[in-house]
Amino acid sequence: MVQTGAPPSKPKGGVSIWGELFEDEIRPTLRHNARGIVSMANKGPATNGSQFFICFQKAPHLDGKNTVFGHVLGEESLDTLAKIEEIEVDKKYRPKQEIKIKHPPWCSATRNISSMAAILRGLFEGSQPSSSPVPVGDADFAEFAGALPVEAKSFSPIDSSPSSIPSVPYTKWYNIHERHSLSEFVQEAIILSFLIVIIAIHLIGTRINRKKVKNLFAALGPSLHKEFGLLGFGVNPSENSNEWHEEDVEDIIREKSPSEFASYATGRQNIAFLDINVNLLKRFSPLSLFVEAAMSVFFESIATPTEQLEAVLYPFDGKETLLLPKTSSTTGESRKYQKSTYDGFVWAIVNKDNLKNLRDDRYDLSLTSTKDSSKLPSWVTIMSESSEITEMLLTPELITAVEQSNEMINYLIITDQPIDQPVKLEDTTPKKRIYLGVKIPSPGQYKYVLPIFEYFLRLTDSLVQNAHFRPEVIRRIKATREDAIRKILKSQEEQKAEERNLEREKAKRLKRDFELKAMDSKAQKKYLEKEKEKEMRKSQKKHIQKR
Fold first, then answer.
1. pLDDT tens readout for residues 106-163
2. For residues 490 and 101, what is the distance between their CA atoms, to the nearest angstrom?
3. Mapping DSSP to helix (H, G, I), strand (E, B) and coil, where does residue 277 land?
4. Beta-carbon count within 10 A of 351 CB
5. Which of 163-177, 183-197, 219-233, 485-499 shows the lowest per-residue confidence on average (mean pLDDT)?
6. Mean pLDDT across the chain
7. Is 291 helix (H, G, I), strand (E, B) or coil?
């Protein structure tokens, strides 16, 4: 390319050929993409508006650095450019002949810089070799003082009258669109689009889960309101406690996470309180959902992602006097509570799809035996400690509720034993609870869940009245628990014996070290040799005993 415009006295910039400083703007739409492109240096006050470049070929490395403002037109002008290109240069790419343009015209522009697409069409009226030698004082060009000039043909001007320069300067801070284009932000656009998609999926998935939970509690709410005096996590019952309103749904739900929701109820005879937990699919995070589903295929220990409502009912079991006030807050009279105790046992109705996981995960169900019943559908089975318990609990109301559930039941468990394997004696203390696990129904399937849910809420009343078994049954149930207690006691005794052995070994080592310190070197050597012989004899005896 040709780089010129700076006089020898000021090689880094001189008087602007524009007449004043060029607008300090770079238009990304105008690029060095062809032969004959003319651009102005735009790197600061030292070069702005003074040095300009004429490209022999495409020069993309100048895009964004120089301001493109013109193009060489006409065959004669291009021939002149070709002649300039043929001039021999030295090692520093400086021409060995001086080239000087004669009578450069004013460069013309339209009203604003955005119209500079109509590039200057007349750059040079004519050119001829310089007849005057370069001043001797110029060290950079002294060696070319006697060089022969090259004849340059004139460029054909298109617009000889320059238009007025805009009065308002185009500064960097408000003309960003002049310096940049959208193509420069492709990477940012991709990242932003990706973030928008993630946020949209999260919001949509969260909204779907919230709506699903609200619809579920809107269907179960009337049954809960009918049975309990207080719903939700409030301190006092609501003012409209005599009527159920769908608007109350949001008040009785607590969101633990976008896929986990909880509720609470209390204020009923024979029931201390009720916990309800709803687990939904992670629709707000499809990647996590996919990973969990894939891992469950390859590892049996990882459960397949499912949606479930689990309700846990805690009976009073005769502890009303410990949990409730002894006197009435309105009359001040002492309260009398009915006896709400019943015999402890483990019994369950389980969907066969969940049978293996429940038996492996729950210690209490491992105490039972599994047996199908002809009174129940084939997709469920009974887990019980005694057939007499099954006969008492398998009522027509329960059978009807199971049949109407359309396989929506996962389990119904009555237990007084811990879920996890007890490791301490305190863990074997009976704590009565009732569990109900059902699949989350679609809006049109709530009728399948309501019968078993209502039976679950009233089950404690039936247990308080009927769950009092013969002494033989109680002895068999207690025998199972006593076996577990004996195993724990045996394990604790073995652990204590091991600790005592470790303490004795530690005391022996301390005594040995103390004795060794009190001996001289010869005595220490004899002591260690005797100790080594004893260890060898012990190892030989063990080896003979193994044979």
1. 444 433 333 333 334 444 444 444 444 444 444 443 443 444 444 444 444 444 444 4
2. 109
3. strand
4. 22
5. 163-177
6. 79
7. helix
* 3-class secondary structure, 281: coil
Token reading at 306:
């499912």
Q: What is the mean pLDDT of residues 81-96?
A: 80
Q: How many CB atoms lie within 10 A of CB 292?
A: 16
Q: Which two tokens stand for residue 386?
A: 């005694």
CA gap 398, 394 in Å, rounded: 6
pTM over 0.70: no
Task: State both tokens at 94.
Answer: 């400086």
Question: DSSP assignment of 442-511, as one string?
Answer: PGGGHHHHHHHHHHHHHHHHHHHHH----HHHHHHHHHHHHHHHHHHHHHHHHHHHHHHHHHHHHHHHHH
Instruction: Report the candidate in 264, 256, 258 with the shortest Cα–Cα distance to residue 217.
Output: 264
Q: What percent of the chain has pLDDT over 70?
A: 75
Write the CB contacts of 402 (distance below 8 Å, at least 6 apart in sequence). Answer: 349, 376, 377, 380, 409, 452
Instruction: Assess contact for 412 and 435: CB atoms under 8 A.
Output: yes
